[in-house]
Fold:
Amino acid sequence: MASNEELKALASQLKDPKGAKGIEIAEMMDATNIKMTLHAIDYLQIQANQHILELGHGNCGHLHNLLARQQGLRYSGLETSELMYTEAQRKNKAYTDAKQAAFFLYDGLHIPFPEHTFDRIFTVNTIYFWSEPHQLLSELARILQPEGVLNITFAQERFMQQLPFTTFGFNLYDENKAADLINGTTFYIQQSNTQTETIESKTGELVNREFTTLTLKKRGH
Structure:
């Protein structure tokens, strides 16, 4: 059984990966979260020549899958982790060299882009760490095109509560809590899609993970 200190260290690495252990954790997250990531991308309703933003891309091992979806796509990635920012660039040098992708650091709250920059935005497993969710959603609304789509993908609270490290700095959500959060913003939920998969947990056991992608659009559109 992992000690509290070990669980705290794991929670910290999941939030902000650092060092050699962070690279290892990022590889593991890329593998264990791929179904969630592809679920988020599947429901983005991507069309040719769109500009897509991802918040919290990790090492971005999924970029090739996204860019192959349509012709002429451009991708921007935002990270709070300097290690993931550099890892994503290292892994995706061919795409950054070809000007199909660009990666940026931010503070988790203030998004460094002008209004209406993006056609599609998605984020997977970051909602637990949002310090000011309403302010961040307001920023996402600002940079999204009027007809744009925002997908937020997260593992359900009832699953996350079974993981001992989530007591350290995670804010957990189910559909109702997420809907309450969205209701106070300029977004509305266009659709909600839930799936269950069997994965190996961060502590090594096989578990059934239930996760949801909320597809949001701006009110008035």
